[in-house]
Structure prediction request, 359 residues.
Amino acid sequence: MSMRIVGIGTAVPRHRITQDDAAQITEPFACETSAQRRRFLATYRLSGVETRHSVVLEASEGDLDSRQSFFAANHPRTSDRMRLYEQEAGALAESAARDALTESALPPARVTHLVTVSCTGFHAPGLDCALIQDLGLSRGVARTHVGFMGCHGLLNGLRVAHAFLGADPAACVLVCAVELCSLHHQYGWDPEKIVANALFADGAGAVVGVGGTSRTASDAYRVVASGSTLVDDSQDAMGWRVGDHGFEMMLSPRVPDLIGQHVRPWLDGWLGQHGLTIESVGSWAVHPGGPRILSAFGAATGIDRAALAPSVQVLADYGNMSSPTVLFILDRLRRAGAARPCVAIGFGPGLAIEAALLA
Prediction:
């Protein structure tokens, strides 16, 4: 049994900022020496990001000092950041979910299972309860939350949805991922945290999935299979921990090398189980963790540079929004009529590799 995706929705906060402006705002809180400033500006310039959206922004234009008031000289506490997450995450998730439902042409009451995905905030009652209330879903909808899994979280959510439909072909599953990464901006000089500051942004994505083996004109994709692996001796390569002043990202320079060493052998084996090779994949939705990760993936797999262009462009236009980012890429691919099958793939703490095969 495959899962037919009959609706996709994406959403970003109202206000955005260019990378140059973000660097100007952030630099005084990160650098103490001219050498640090040069490295800081190079990190922002080479991030591959041109614009990003954030819930902390209060304006998209005008004087930089008046664009936002959340981050100031006093470093916001984790409780302050979680309070803003609770205020903003639900509305952004609802926007993406509502668009996915509209595209599916299915009424909200048809949804039997709700899967929410997020790694940038916690509160209870949570996103699931807010979506049930705001979208008019059945009070009896089955709820599952995929939490704190990082950039590949949406792919885990799709696996859960696929399993639900395998157990009950009459089910209808709404998967919604929302991340407010900009809430976890870190102060001070720490090269790993500065890389994260330069890359991450806010966004949401949702899909509506139903059962069935035959593809119809309304289907965006069919989820055929999923795969997962943990890279040996990589626990120190990527981390995401709750700190006193937000969640703290640990991102080792080893990550691109680990991807370069391990992704090809694993992909060869996983795709081979489904009668495919890397060369027979029609399109790729590669999570853009950063330019070096995309370059390492391309070099390891040997895929044409043009195949990574949608990932590169989403990174440029929106930044790394963590879990929903893959949906932004898939949406571009299907609107462009990209060849299938498609492989969506992401990387997260573990170091974990997660993938979905879509037809």
About this structure: Residues 221-358 form a domain with the Peroxisomal Thiolase; Chain A, domain 1 fold (CATH 3.40.47.10).
